[in-house]
């Protein structure tokens, strides 16, 4: 894997750094772009045919990130507009986890090709990566607000959250990070316009986050156990949070209706657990292949 590097020395204070993020090929960069475009949150991230731009909250302030592939070089090119140069390494850590750049795609693909229904999907999209979020907190809010509703409906809830809690810049077209738990908790769940049961689950999630139970540095098993204890948070929400917020490679998404529908379109086999079981220890990647077997947003 090519070593990460940047093109200038950093000193204290704001700085723009051009750096690279190496990966083991192949990398399904187009698949990542498609996922982030379909789930993009206005004001937080922007995706076009080649680039992914987003804002990150880092220890010394907000950082604007622009990512693009560097064809033939086995690396992504990243431009980081850092509030403080001291945040460079933290930004790289977040991006590598979020984009699943430390995975060995050859190992994942080789295993998934042994599952008959997955083999043609792997052949079509080698090097698929788990599209993560910057934090587990964002992952769980996306999971709770997006459960059993359309992607557009879930994003509408989060747009309201960003509008009410976020700190937009006066600069036209500027991006802001997804609000952190410290910012959201004092506002409660007034931004959420949905069912009472889901509102109660969100209240529990906000309390858990305020107590440090969703910190990115926690062990994923500890995060999962803490989420399972929150009233109204089910197994699907926990699995989705661990996959997107921690990069967990082997979550159990057997209750996902979209996966069942995708499987039915591919084969007469409707035993989703039976298909996912032999995909272990890479069930998260198997689920992603099924979700994206057809273009995102198609019926």
UniProtKB/TrEMBL annotation:
The keyword Calcium does not apply. Keywords: DNA damage, DNA repair. GO terms for molecular function: alkylated DNA binding; DNA-3-methyladenine glycosylase activity; DNA-7-methylguanine glycosylase activity. InterPro entries: AlkA_N, AlkA_N_sf, Alkylbase_DNA_Glycosylase/TA, DNA_glycosylase. Residues 18-135 form the DNA-3-methyladenine glycosylase AlkA N-terminal domain. GO terms for biological process: base-excision repair, AP site formation; DNA alkylation repair. GO terms for cellular component: cytoplasm; protein-DNA complex. Signal peptide: none annotated. This is DNA-3-methyladenine glycosylase AlkA N-terminal domain-containing protein. It comes from Janibacter melonis. The lineage of its organism: Bacteria, Bacillati, Actinomycetota, Actinomycetes, Micrococcales.
């Amino acid at each position: 894997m090519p070593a990460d590097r940047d093109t200038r020395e950093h000193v204290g204070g704001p700085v723009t750094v051009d750096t690279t993020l190496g990966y083991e090929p192949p990398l399904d960069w187009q698949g990542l772009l498609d996922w982030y475009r379909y789930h993009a949150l206005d004001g937080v991230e922007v995706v076009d045919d080649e680039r992914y731009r987003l804002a990150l909250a880092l220890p010394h302030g907000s950082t604007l990130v622009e990512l693009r592939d560097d064809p033939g070089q086995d690396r992504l090119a990243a431009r980081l507009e850092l509030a403080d140069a001291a945040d460079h390494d933290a930004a790289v850590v977040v991006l590598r986890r979020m984009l699943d750049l430390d995975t060995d795609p050859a190992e994942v693909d080789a295993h998934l090709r042994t599952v008959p229904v997955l083999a043609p999907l792997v052949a079509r999209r080698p090097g698929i990566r788990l599209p993560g979020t910057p934090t587990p907190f964002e992952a769980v809010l996306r999971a709770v607000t997006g459960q059993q509703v359309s992607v557009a409906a879930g994003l509408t809830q989060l747009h309201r959250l960003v509008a009410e809690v976020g700190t937009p810049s006066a600069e036209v077209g500027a991006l802001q990070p997804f609000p952190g738990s410290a910012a959201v908790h004092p506002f409660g769940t007034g931004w959420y316009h949905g069912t009472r049961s889901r509102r109660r689950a969100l209240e529990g999630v906000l309390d858990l986050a305020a107590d440090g139970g969703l910190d990115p540095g926690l062990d994923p098993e500890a995060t999962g156990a803490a989420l399972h204890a929150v009233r109204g948070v089910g197994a699907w929400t926990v699995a989705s949070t661990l996959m997107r917020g921690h990069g967990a490679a082997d979550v159990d998404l057997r209750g996902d209706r979209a996966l069942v529908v995708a499987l039915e379109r591919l084969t007469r086999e409707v035993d989703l657990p039976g298909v996912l079981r032999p995909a272990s220890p890479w069930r998260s990647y198997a689920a992603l292949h099924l979700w994206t077997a057809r273009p995102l947003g198609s019926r």
